[in-house]
Amino acid sequence: MEHFHVVCVGLATDYLIRKTQVALEYAHNRKECDRHCSIFWVHADSETSFVQDYNSIARKLELPSRRGRKDVLQAVCDKLESNPNWVLVIDGADDLTWFGVTPRWLASSPKTKVNLTSFIPKCSTGTGTVLWTSRDRQVCSPVGEKQAINVFKMTSDEAVALLSTIRHKELTEDEYTEVGELLDELDHISLAISQVAAYIRKPSVSVGNCLTDIRKMSKTRWKILRKSEYNRHRREQGRNNVLETWDVSVQHLRNMDELIYDVLHTLTFVDNQNIPFELICETARHADGFSRRRLNARNTSEKNHRKKEEKAQLSKEDIETIVTRLCDFSFLTSRTSDPVVYDMHKLVQEAARYRLQKGGDEVKNEAHFAQVAFEIVNDVFPKGEENFLKIEPWERCEQYLAHALQTATWAELHGGEVHVAGLLRSISDYLGHRNRWREKETVDEKIVHLMHKKMGERHPDTLTAMRCLGLTYSKQEKWKEAEELFRTTLCANEEVLGEKHPRTLRSMHSLCWTILEQGRHEEAENLCRQILQLRTEILGEKHLDTIDSLYNLGAAIECQGRHDEAERILRGALVEEPKRPREMKDSTGRLKDQPNDAKTEGTLRQVNHESFLIQKTKRAPAMTLQRSQLDVSR
What is the reported pTM? Predict the structure, then answer.
């Protein structure tokens, strides 16, 4: 009968506790059921540890000493095969090249490792068991897929039980909500829960305080997650904290293929959920191109440079291999969706960034991978007003929205504030077209912050960003916040550009309508007359902006009940309005391309103004403001 093999595979951190715990529990139960069963434990993270533990077993079994290395391995194997009742735990079999599993990219390598599989005992009686634990799902190759036990992250009940046990205190009713949020932050990963539970044991630390610290992207968070707690089941040289335990797996992947390492670390700077395969493809190609450019920089021959460029194109098969290896080590998990998307544990991303920060690579550091992630997402995110006016690109915008926002959080890390602000403006335009003003507000605030820091508070682009934020406030009827911003931008524009500059007049225009919406009609009327006078002087009576100022003034007067005067002004505006389109601008006030049906737009504006005139005596003040596309975009 064939010998019995079982393998436990799962995420690297749960490998440290849960997979090893499964092996310990199995061994304990087997011994409880059969006291004659012999239990042997072998660490398989390297050939050295494997041989050392086999030597220890040889001494326990009183095998003859002074043998060669292979003789000892074979002697232990033969001895176990002659024993009808045993369990052998092969713990930490992560580097499967020691067990005859050769990756495709190493198949042609002249250096071959000793195949330790030949020294794993077989049992003809069927009572022997070999239990493997590994971070690498490919361990199923020498064992068999059906023999695998996938160790997933803890359930909520298991996580709460572990937290309470290590904390030495049961949860109170008031703590359950905060504990649930804390466990979600930790992704229900057992090692992280163990570290945090030990931290909460301090008398001065409550669950709420710990949750606050964990949510912060700060040194306090890393201090908690980096702290190693004593575990008598762990080897002394092994890492026992959630930020460093992945180092072994990451270095192993890097030794396999530098591209896998690059893709992994680039993905740590995008959102951890719903990562499209297309994004991974672009990441792999970018990493491949970067590696080729570094290699070509050392080569002075332009001819060789071109040849290498032609040869080093990644195929879809190459990229699928990279994804497979990341999934094998549970760094990525696929979702059953069409098209397929992938998730990455938040703590995997955290640990990778921690590794980059403390690492000594001057080129491939935090700033490098953060910038690469931004450049890739920036390339794939739709841009241009014409995209947001159609429904088709909306799906793609949604697909990459979370990733774009996440890459924007690292702008100051790589010094790309201005470029990131450009991407955020595209996001802002998209959200505006979807009437998602609360989300747009957060994006606009980020733009203002980046431009203020990089360009200064008086730079025209900073002032434009502030005005856009004010317009977003207006859409949510946050009139006081909007007025404060419009006054700030107006004063700054007057100082920097002068009171007659178009941007200054646009700030006055926005401020005017904000004041009117708050019911300060006389103040709005005075400001409207000031704008009308300036625009008439600078642009002339027949310019569209001047005519718009006439409509604004008419609305302000009509809101005060002076209907005849308002009607006279509005009819005069209708007569003066030329049959030509206005200059179209995006939400930042920048000019954009005219649509082919620009004349139609001009006609619609006139119809809207006439409708306004006819209904003016029946409208409430708020309805009055709904004239021809009230110039929130100007």
Answer: 0.70
